[in-house]
Design brief:
Elements (H helix, E strand, L loop, with lengths): L8 H8 L7 H9 L11 H24 L4 H8 L5 H13 L1 H4 L3 H32 L4 H18 L2 H4 L3 H22 L5 H27 L3 H26 L9
Helix pairs in contact: 1-10, 1-11, 2-10, 3-5, 5-7, 7-8, 10-11, 10-12, 11-12
Length: 260
Amino acid sequence: FNPQGHDWLWPMVFVTVACGANSGFHALVSSGTTSKQLDNERFAKRIGYGGMVLEAVLAVMALLAVSAGLSASGLEAMLSKGGPGPIGAFGKGYGVLAAPILFDKGNLVAIMILNAFILTTLDTATRICRYLSEELFKIKNRFFATFVVVFTSGALALSGKWSDIWPLFGASNQLVAALTFVVVSSWLLCRGKSIRFTFFPAVFMLITSIGALLYQFLGFIKNNEILLATVSIALIILCFIMMFDVFSSIKRRRLKCEIP
C-alpha cells in the first residue's frame, strides 16, 4: 500500500483519480445543469450511465494514445522537464495512432478534442460556481455573480497562485462526492426506500476523503505549507458541520422531501 516510498495507495488513489465514476464536481453538474436539460426525467438513467460509459471510452483512448502511440522512452521525453507535457503526449500519441486515417492531421484533431473538452468543462464549472455564489451570498443579479466568478478565477489563474491550492483539489472533490451520497441517502431514507446502495459508499468515501485530507495535512505541516494545512482542516470541519446538520434533521424527523 506504500509503493517505493511514494504516497499510500489508500487513501490517495481514490482522491487522485477524480473521474465521473465518483466525483463531487460531476455531482454538482448532474444536479445543477444536466437535470435542467432533460426533456423527461425518465431519460436521466440512460444519460447518466451512458455518460459514464463514454467517459470510460475516452479514458481508454487516452491510455492507447500514450501507451501504443508512444514508446516508453518517447513518453518519458514528453513528460520530462521542458517537454510538451501530458497534453503534448496525448496529441503526439493520438496522431501516431490515427495516422493511417488522418495522415499528418491527427495531432490537430487531438488538440481540438482536448480544447472542446476543456472549454465545455470551464463553461460548466463557471455556471456551477455562479449559482453556488448566488445561493451562498444571496446575490440576486446573475450577471454580477458571473462577473465576480470570472474575475476572481481569472485573477487566480493569471497570478499563478492556483498551483498553491491545487494539491487539495482531489480530496476536496471526493469529499463533496461523499456528502452527495449522504444527502441522497437522507432523501431515500425519508422516502422509506433502501439506502444500502448509497449509505455504504458514503461511509467509505467519507473515511477515505477525510483520511486523505489528514494525510496531506501532515505533509503540509512537515513542509511548512501553512495555507494548505489550514484549508485541509477547514474542509474537514465544514464536512463535520454538514454531517451533523443532515443527521440532526433526520433524527428530528424534520427532513422534507419534495418531488418536483
